[in-house]
Every structure is written in C-alpha cells, then in structure tokens.
Amino acid sequence: MAQKTTEGTSLHQGILERLDAGEIVIGDGGFVFALEKRGYVKAGPWTPEATVEHPEAVRQLHREFLRAGSNVLQTFTFYASEDKLENRGNYVAEKISCHKVNEAACDIAREVANEGDALVAGGVSQTPSYLSCKDKTEVKAAFQKQLEVFMKKNVDFLIAEYFEHVEEAVWAVEVLKESGKPVAATMCIGPEGDMHGVSPGQCAVQLVKAGASIVGVNCHFDPETSIETVRLMKEGLQAAKLKAHLMCQPLAFHTPDCGKQGFIDLPEFPFGLEPRIATRWDIQKYARKAYDLGIRFIGGCCGFEPYHIRAIAEELAPERGFLPEASEKHGSWGDNLSMHTKPWVRARARKEYWENLKPASGRPYCPCMSKPDGWGVTRGAKELMQQKEATTEQQLKELFQKKK
Amino acid sequence: MAQKTTEGTSLHQGILERLDAGEIVIGDGGFVFALEKRGYVKAGPWTPEATVEHPEAVRQLHREFLRAGSNVLQTFTFYASEDKLENRGNYVAEKISCHKVNEAACDIAREVANEGDALVAGGVSQTPSYLSCKDKTEVKAAFQKQLEVFMKKNVDFLIAEYFEHVEEAVWAVEVLKESGKPVAATMCIGPEGDMHGVSPGQCAVQLVKAGASIVGVNCHFDPETSIETVRLMKEGLQAAKLKAHLMCQPLAFHTPDCGKQGFIDLPEFPFGLEPRIATRWDIQKYARKAYDLGIRFIGGCCGFEPYHIRAIAEELAPERGFLPEASEKHGSWGDNLSMHTKPWVRARARKEYWENLKPASGRPYCPCMSKPDGWGVTRGAKELMQQKEATTEQQLKELFQKKK
Amino acid sequence: MAQKTTEGTSLHQGILERLDAGEIVIGDGGFVFALEKRGYVKAGPWTPEATVEHPEAVRQLHREFLRAGSNVLQTFTFYASEDKLENRGNYVAEKISCHKVNEAACDIAREVANEGDALVAGGVSQTPSYLSCKDKTEVKAAFQKQLEVFMKKNVDFLIAEYFEHVEEAVWAVEVLKESGKPVAATMCIGPEGDMHGVSPGQCAVQLVKAGASIVGVNCHFDPETSIETVRLMKEGLQAAKLKAHLMCQPLAFHTPDCGKQGFIDLPEFPFGLEPRIATRWDIQKYARKAYDLGIRFIGGCCGFEPYHIRAIAEELAPERGFLPEASEKHGSWGDNLSMHTKPWVRARARKEYWENLKPASGRPYCPCMSKPDGWGVTRGAKELMQQKEATTEQQLKELFQKKK
Amino acid sequence: MAQKTTEGTSLHQGILERLDAGEIVIGDGGFVFALEKRGYVKAGPWTPEATVEHPEAVRQLHREFLRAGSNVLQTFTFYASEDKLENRGNYVAEKISCHKVNEAACDIAREVANEGDALVAGGVSQTPSYLSCKDKTEVKAAFQKQLEVFMKKNVDFLIAEYFEHVEEAVWAVEVLKESGKPVAATMCIGPEGDMHGVSPGQCAVQLVKAGASIVGVNCHFDPETSIETVRLMKEGLQAAKLKAHLMCQPLAFHTPDCGKQGFIDLPEFPFGLEPRIATRWDIQKYARKAYDLGIRFIGGCCGFEPYHIRAIAEELAPERGFLPEASEKHGSWGDNLSMHTKPWVRARARKEYWENLKPASGRPYCPCMSKPDGWGVTRGAKELMQQKEATTEQQLKELFQKKK
C-alpha cells in the first residue's frame, strides 16, 4: 500500500460529513497522563494550565498525535471549568484565569490542525460543582463559560466527555447543542452503567435525545471493556430506534479487575499503572474490534501515547487506504526489525510473532490483579464534597486512617 | 525545602569539577525509545536522523529532561557512526550524511543546555564494523569521524557508551581521549561481563587505563542489576588501585530474567516491553541505591522518560538541596493527590502508600518472566555479519525458520 | 472448646433428621482425584474398580475423611453405571462386573461408617448413554441397576451427582425416589446453568419437583463460584415457593477463568492442576461463606483431600461444638507451629498470618489464568458420541489436528 | 514395553550391589507432609508417632510408594530422636517412648517391603540437641539410640538425612558406620552450602571421608536447585579424587525464590505451599536431569506423593526396562485420556501437550515469588535454643512482634 499523509476526500469536511460518509475518524490520546510524565501537568488536580505556561509542550504533543494519524485534535481543556481550576487549593483560575487557559488551548490546537487534515474539537468535562450537589443552573453556567471561548475561537465541533453521571452529561450536551455545532458525548462508564445505576443503553438514549450526534465512552476502562460498554449503548439505541454515530476513547491500561468506577479505584492509580500499559499490538486488536462493532470514531484517553494512535491507524490502513505520517518510522507488525543487528531480533519481523506474544511483567513479586478500593461513597457524601481551599492536614489524617 | 531551579555552585563548571567536588550529576533518559513512541525513530536501525528531519521533537525531549533535572544533555548521536547509518538498507548517510546528523545533534543539545545549567556530552557507541570483524583502524576511523564534529561544536565532554565488547570500548576511549576533553565510558553489560567473557571489574580497569575518567554501565539491564554490575566494577578498580568516578544509566524496564546479553534477548524486545516499565517509585529506590554505592553520575537509558529522571532528582533532593523545575508539577511521594476529587485517592497522598505498593500487571494470561532467546552466536558468526543492503526475503525466511 | 469425636445428638439419625434439626452435615472429598494420585484410579475413564481391586486403598481414604470430620461417606460408585464401565475400551464391566464394583463400594463405605458417626450415601452420576442420545428408558435402566445394589446393601440415603444436564438429573432423581429413601441431587454447573442453558434456579426447581430433598452443586467449579451457583438455586426455589436443603461440594481447585463447562475445559485438566489447589485457609473461607448462605450439607469434590475436609470442620467447630478427630494433629489456624524449631516459623502460629497470606506460585514462567478450550460441541455432536471400543489412532489424529 | 512389576536381577540384592551394577534405585516420597494432609502428623513438631498410633495409615502410604516404583522404603523415623520427640511440649517420648516409635516404623516398613522388591533403610535426621549447642557425645548418643533399634530390626542399610550442618551429619555418619551396614548421607542444603558456610563440594568430601557410600541432598529445595547442589558435590568429590554414589531427594515444591535455608523461610511454609506443588511432568523432567548428571538414587522428600514417584519410574522406564505396578492406572504422558468422554480432553492424550504446558495458578491476586523470611539467626542464637516445655505465650508474643 502506498504511503500517503493526507487523504484528499476528507480535507475541509466536518465531523458529521466524514462519519456520514462512512469514514473512519481517528481521535487523539490522553493529554493529562502524557504531559504529567513529560513534566507539565500535576496529577491530582489534572488541570490544563500548561496551555498558558508551556504551550510548546502542548503543541508538540498535538503534533505527535497528528503525525500518528489523529483526525481530531481536542483542545486541551480537560477539567478547565472555572470551579475545577479553583478546587482544593489549585488556584489556577486566580493565577491565570479560566478564560486564558481555554483560549490558549484553542489557539494551539488550531495551529497544529492546520498543519494537516484535522478537525479541532472543543471539550468540556464533568465538574466539581455537580459532585458537590450544586444546582443545574450553576453547573450549566460552567459549561457555558467554556463554550463562549470555543465559539469565539470557532472550533469545528464539540465534545462533552468524561461524565460519571448521565444527568450532568445531558446538561452539558444541552448547553453545547445551543451553539449549533455538532456535539459528541462520551461517558467514563463501564458495562454496569453510570454512578446512579443508569445502564449504558439508557445513557446513550438520553444523550442522543439531548442532542448528541455521536455517543460512546472514554477513559476509566480498558479497550476490551469499553467496547463492551459501547455495544450495550448500541443495543440501547437500536431498541429505542434512535440513530447516532458511535465513539470509543478508552484507557491504554489493562483493567480486567476494575469495578464500577474504573481505574480510579485501582490501588495503582495514578502512579503505579505502568505494568498495565497496553502494547501497540493490544491497540491494533482494539481498533479492529471497535471497527467490527461499527464504531467509526476511534481514539484513546489516558495512557494513549502517539504510538498507540499510530497503531489504530496502521490496523485500519487497509480500510482507509493510507498510512499515517509517523509510519515512515514504523514498519507494520514490526517489519523494520529486519534492519536489526542481532539475527534473533530480525527473526521477530513478522505479524505472527507479535500477535501471539504474551509479554511478561518482569515483576515476580507482584500479582496480576488488584482489588479496587471501594468506599461506596456517592454524590452527596461528605467526603465527596469539593472545596476551594486545599485539603487540610486534619482531613488527610482522617482519610489515611480510613484507608487502613 | 525551598524549590530552586538552578544551583549557583555548579553553573559553568565542567563534569570533572562537579564530580570531584562530590556533586551528584544527573544524566538524561533514553532518546531512541522515547522518540520511537513519539513517532520519530525507527525501531530496528535505531538511528538518530530525527536531528535533521524533526529537530523540534528532539529539542522538546531535551527540554523535558532538562526540566526534570538532567545536568548532562547527551547529543542525540547514538548509532550515528557512518557504518551504522548505512546498515541493512537504512541509507541515512546517503540521504542525509553522517556529518549533518551529528552536527544537528550538537546544535540542538547546546541550544537547550543553554536554557539551564547543563553540560553537553558528545556520544559514540558500538559499531557494526566491529561486529563484522573489521580491523582496529577502520573501527577507530568511525569514532574519529564523529569526534571531529564534537570538537568543531565544542561539546563539554565525551561519552563512549553502549559497548558489548570492552576491546571496542577501549578503542573508542583511545580515540576520544586524544581530544583532551574528559571521557566517560559505559558498557551495556551485566554482572557476567562482556560478550567475550571479560568481567565487569576487568572492563573497568581497562577503560580507566585507556583514559576514561568516569566508568560504569548503561542500557541492557534493569537498575538493580546495573548497580550490581557497577559494584563489581568498583571492586575491580579498588583491587587494581585505580581511581575513577562511577556512572550508571540503566534501563527503565525490569529485567530479572535476562541472561548475559540483556533485554535484547527477551522475547518482548522491543515492542512488548510495556509491562516491565519501572514506576517512579522504582526509580527513586534505584537513585538511593546508586547513591549509597558511591555512584555520582546517575541517569537512565532506554525506557527512561522525563518523569523517571525527575524521580532521581526528587529522591536525591535532600542531598542536593533543591528540586528540579518539573517538580512544580509533582508533589514528592504523591502529595499533590491531596487535590484529587475522590477521597480514596486523596488517601494515597503519602510515601508509605507508594513505597509499599506492589503494582498488578492487569495481564492475567501473561507470565512474570520470559526465557531469553539464546542463539549462542557471537562476533564472527555468519548471522552477526552486518551488510549495507537490506535483509533479503530469503535471509528472513531462514531466520523465521530458525526461530521456530 | 473440648475436643469430641462423636456428637451424641446425631448418632443413628438420618440425613433429613439432621438437616431438619439445623445440624451442619459435612460431606467427604473427591475419590477419583485422590486415588488417581495414590495409584488406584485411571484418569480418563475415572471408573471405581479399585473397590474390587484394592479395597484397602479405598477403605483408608474413607477412614481419613471420617477422621477429618465427614458425616457422610459416599459409596465409591462414581461413574459406576454399566455403560460407563464399558466406555472407550475400558472393559471393567466385562472383567469385573458392574454389580461387584457397586457392591464392594457399599461394603467398604459401611464398614468405615460404622467406625464413627457417619451415614452411607449411595451415588449415581451422569451416563455416556445420555450423552450419546440414548432414550429415557435406557438411561433410567442404568440408574436402576445401581439402585438395586444400594437397596440390597441398605445405604442410608441416595445422591444423584455430577450432572451437566438437568434433564438427565431429573431422570436419575425419579429412579432413586422410587426407593423411598431420601434423595440429594447436585449438578456440576456454574452460574451460567446447565449445558442446555437451563438456569441454576430452574435446575433446582425441577430437581425438587422430581423428588429431591436436598439440592445443590458439585465438582466443575471452585468454592467461590459454586457458592454463587447455589445462591442462584436458592433464589430460584424461593421464587417458586419450594423448600429444600442446600448442598455444596465444589472443587478444591481455583477456577476463576472457567467458562460454562468448568475445569474440564481448562488446559491444565487433569494433569496440571497442582498450582490451583486450594489451601486449608481457602477452604475455611469457603465453609464460612457456605454456612452464611444457609447451606448445611457442606463437602467437597475433586481436589479435596482429607485436610480440606478437616478445614471445614475446624471452621465450623464453634457452631458445631466439637472438633474432628484429625484435629488432634492440627492446631487451629496453625497454632501447633509454636512447636517448630525455627523462631520465624513459630511466629506464624496465628490466624492473622494465614488469613492474609497471598501464596506465591513459585512458577514465574506461568500465567495466572488460562483460556479454556471451547469446542462448542454439545450433546448430539459426532465427537461427543461415546463408544465401547477404544478410541482409534485415526480418531486421535483427527482430534490432535483439531486441537492445533 | 511390557509392563513388569518386579525385575529379576535386583531381587534380594543390597543397595550397594544395585548401585555398583549401574541400576537406578528409586527412593520414596515425603511422609511427614503426606501424612499431615491425611490427618496423622502434626505440622510444627513433625514427629512420627503415627507408627504407633495409626500403623494402618503409615502402612498404606508405604504400599502406595512401593506400588509407584520405590525400591527403598525408609522407616518412618524422621525426627524420631528422643530429644526431638520431647521438644517444645510435644511429649511423645513420654507418652509412647522413642524406642516404640522407632520399632514400629521398622516393622511396618519391612512388612510392606516384603510385598515387593524393596529395601528397608533406617533413617536418622538432625537433632534439637545440636541446634542447642549440646556436645558431640550427647548428639551421637541420640543417633546411637535409634541405631540400636535399626540393628535389632535388621534394616538393609542406613540413611542420615536432613542435616543443615555438615558437622552434625558427619557425627551421624560416624555413628551409623559402626554398624557395618552401608550408609547414605544427604544434607538439606542448596548451592550456597551448609548453615556454617561449608560448600556442597566440601560437605560431600567430609561425608565420604566419614564413611558414607552414597551422598547427596534431600528436602529444602526444588528439584532443579537440588540437582545443581548435587552437581557441586560431584565436582567436589572429583577434585578430591573420592568416589561415592550420588543421591537426590528434593522437594516437590517449586522454590525459585529461596535463600540459603530453603523452603522453611518462605512465607508459605508449611500451610500455603499448594501453588508450588510440582506436576508429574515437572518430576519427569527432574528424573531425566538427575539421571543425566549421573545420579542413580533418585527419590523425593516433602511434597512427593505416590504419583510423583511413579513419574520418576515412568520417565526412566526405557533405561530400566519396566514400569511400576501403579502404571496399570496411568498411561505414560497422559495416553489414557484417549478414554475420556470429552473430545478436547482426548486431544490431550500426547506427550507434546503435557511437556509444553505452562500451568496457570488460578490465583490472580497472588504473586509468583515471595521474599523469604531472613532473621539471620544461626546455631547458638537465643531464639534457636530448643526446650522441652511448650513455647510460652510470652515467647510467642515476642516472636509475633519481631515478625512485624
């Protein structure tokens, strides 16, 4: 197959035109985890002030995803609602301003998108206000504030992502929908449904009814589990005779042991997840399965690095007819290993080898699965109330005690 | 401890002045693996033509390491000898030129080093010529060619790294030593010694006698094994009444199952190593152990991402008196998790938690250890002869057959 | 607690009197696996001709279970229907006779039962005839033939166990019920139900309606899974407003990875199951969970050795008021370790230690879970047809080929 | 190969005649572990009073080993020295008498040996007296007392086994040697040597010089490690130009993670070792490796059940020309599985399948390896002093504290 870096047909076309035409749209990977490892994002608050503080780092990561095959560049506005930027002693809104963080994110994404054939999607995500039981008006106002920036910067479409409660996701879709731009909505749930017990099928139905044209899941679970959740969403939509495009942006971490709330509850979250990182071959299997289920917006979330996105693009190259730019530096199924100096490594230059490999952990004192933490607290519980000021020593001491 | 980003005393001082004064010098991480995942380096040949093709990507990675605490920026000239740039169908020398690749690497490293308090080290590594039994003159000429660039660009010191045979490493040191600049030399060996059976102690002795002021190991083995190898080197030097500074730049992959030749032989090399990636806590333990053994040049090799280097700098912050710039975005031992929305994650904001975590692999169908490939071929064997032209289909077929 | 070897109240009482009075009845363990390891049973056919060939070995195993706390000794008549004794080249019926195998089993069980306070249960299990689609009359005749021996030898009650299809189990219960003796019935199924897709709840309902006074599961799944299946049976009975005692006799192998057909499909069956063997502490947890669910007939199946049965008796000693005879040689929760010569082993003489131990496998090259074989063939398929003559070389060759 | 249950040539021949003639002699398995699971031995003291209390259980186990292929039946006199029978509150000597325990053991072994072609070996093992620093005379007197019984009962030869210190083993050999009967001596050590740091080679030399005709190892380590230790013994003997037959009776537990003192230090000892139990295929590999090294007395220790001994006999059947009696019930390499009802299990009736199986642990929350306890106390330390009276609550409390 000839290697091409752009595809004539889709240039300048919108997200719905592409999906309606049956095109595969490749999303990008997870910014907060990737930039945390690169030194620009703080684990805990996970807020995106790097757009102002270190635009070159954000720009470079966008470029890598574009080069790896992403057709959509999401503005790095995850957790960039004003209340989140001010939560638990973070004070980003005060020091920089919510407006500037969101604006810078749009500018950087657009700059890089223009270097290739990619769309810019403005994104909102769940808010501490909702978790702290603030009312609908207040929560919607937070989304509205971000939307104003997205409209000013004229993003191509909008994504409401990372919602644990469909109620809040619906509010977000309602706000975004007013813009007239296409809206995608993904929840960070597994097959058990949202935190209030709403099933994936019901979540999908509510989101489409609220105005989302594309629905699915992102984050919290591994590719296999996420595809299963989207399958349940698809069934729910079919049962309700509703139509929508399907989308999947899972973790690049294996999470066979997760409960309802996903990887947050794993003891390894967020600083011990390394052994769970998916290989490129795991991701190729994911891309194929997602495609086979009818998902056409296929991307990733936390843990997805550029090479994972490239793996999606390589797996689906036969269907798409072209390879991403970064495949200049990557032979499909390892075939560049034919250039290795060692003969036994050259012997690994074939699909059969990598497809069947069961990689060892190199950690003989560690188990394969963990029991997730399960405190059983839900929205409304005292411990889940958010606060502007930093967590106090006394609060931490109580938590450490409870943890034991 | 107050967070500082520069340390007055060492600014503008050379590598030997720093080490002689007892300072801890932090190296950088592995460029070929990190840039392969970002889409700029081809696994197999592993050559650094990205310095010319994508300088922005190389520059950004240097910056991240500097920000994470690196005091030495190595020019991205790994495998940049002319014979390697032309090996097995790679043709980089022909398309770009060996000279340009090395020059660009020096320019980028210097540009970033000037943004902080870091030294630039020009690096050479083992050659296909040696493996193919070319004579001493020819091998030395390859190093000489790279050295000319390093001298022209006036790097601060030189590193001969990634040598499997001490004989070739000595030749490299002899060439580099003629420059008058300080020379460090590291071999990619484990406790069993080099590929010809020379013990680590003997390797160290030969390297120091050839002119190296700093000796140690890099690549091929995990931190624990590498420290053990440096310990053997230290003993060898003591027995021979020789003095040198010690250096360690191991993998950030766990390799308890490796044989003599290290991770190259593992079935997971190079595309299935994810489950073996070290956590930041593993690296903090490594930094402490390395320090306790008397190693003062402490860095990393393949698998080391910026956050791993930051972990070295954080672990040794009490000794050094300052934190790296990237620690703005990282609370020591997870203490920024006190800003997390979920209470059970806030309960992980403490050293005791992360220090004792045994992270699960999330891969219940995979084992913990692998049997390394062991073809038993050594320098001189037909299969180890390198060639300029690409590996043929017939050659590959023979290898696949042998692999079975 | 005073150690007693008999309990006055239950002596000479029947199984239903005991269960109706709320007593805990402890079953025995798995004869075919235990005697295979001792050298008296052939894996593959799994038939009990040892009752005639080596009565001393069968007697000794009964004695060990009695000593460990069993209140029920099952006649060793598993797979002792005439058609099974003649299946695939086994020829036991021809060489010994079905009648003699069953008679000897009854005699040995009675002899040992009289040495303590135990009941003798005559047992039947599923037949090759059913699998080969023989009709109801023929299948029932096989059970009838065994029942005649049980009546002649006057066993205390009857067990129909190890049925994969509830249809056949119902036929067995109907035959046994005619005897007027109490009938227990257990299926070797998991939460997914029988091989025809009948749910556990429905299975329980059909068995009780057919005349079983005690229902539950045996074999094929680990304790945890089996308890879950009995829980579903209990719910089914409650929904149908039916009453029956509950019974559980699971494997002593961990089978978290099993599919619908249980451990038969695991690649390790039957000669590589060692790493899955439950510890005595696993069994104590099982006994407690079974008790808490309301199960009062608690025993084991394949993999259960006498010390596993003792673990049930020790866990439930507080409720029962006495320990089994074999506890003379076993301190609860390891407290006899206080007599060990090594101090660090004496330090293990406490419940907290053993309760929390996560035992290592000692097998670093092996995974934790396996993918079960899943040929998807069911009753009626050519490969499932049984035959009197031995499997031919040609038949085996076809199977090996299919296995690849 | 025709199946034979006796072999004409060796009937009535002594142990040295057999070994001198190049015969393979198969030992038996571990009595204390097997009988602990059957309910007759107390873990902790591990003493053999079952010979008097439950002779039928001891006899049955001897029979199973004989049937499995054992050519040597060891009297069940492990830890039957008077001081051990009285250690830490055990009081067996007081209640039964050391003399009677040893006598009964000899009688039972002889009775069963006469049922086949087996020799009876009287055995002594290390004493608490030595550990408590009693003098040579006192320690030797303990062995002498047992020897008197062995002579009276006219055993065929003698084994001094399970010694952690070669000094004590030499004393034992000196005592036994006076009888004029052949003496075998095995130590429970690994490649690191005895508890005082004497190398395996040196241990072997000292034992042969003291009069042992057969030397090797038993217990404490897995087959692979034990063979390595015997290899070092063989080299030691060759270097010293001494001749002796080699013997190996390892654990049937995998212990890749053990330190100097073997499995006693593993956190799983003695009640959580199940996942480490060797399969029959592991034992066949052991038998082959032992044979290839020149070991001709091949048996087992703790964890070896009759089917493990049968595996030795089956693996070496080509060399010996016959199969053991128990192979009536066991097809080599699983070939009786051709009689199984399920086709995919029939497909496992072949060597290639079982030889390559990597059995899963079924324990996804458990690791593969453990860190051994290492208290670093050696002979002479207060905690290692033995005492006649039971360990007090206060002593235990101190140990529990230390264990934390």
Automatic annotation (TrEMBL), chains A, B, C, D:
Zn(2+) binds at residues 219, 301-302. Pathway: Amino-acid biosynthesis; L-methionine biosynthesis via de novo pathway; L-methionine from L-homocysteine (BhmT route): step 1/1. Its cofactor is Zn(2+). Pfam families: S-methyl_trans (PF02574). Keywords: Metal-binding, Methyltransferase, Transferase, Zinc. Binds 1 zinc ion per subunit. SUPFAM superfamilies: Homocysteine S-methyltransferase. GO terms for molecular function: betaine-homocysteine S-methyltransferase activity; zinc ion binding. GO terms for cellular component: cytosol. Involved in the regulation of homocysteine metabolism. Homotetramer. This is Hcy-binding domain-containing protein. It comes from Serinus canaria. The lineage of its organism: Eukaryota, Metazoa, Chordata, Craniata, Vertebrata.
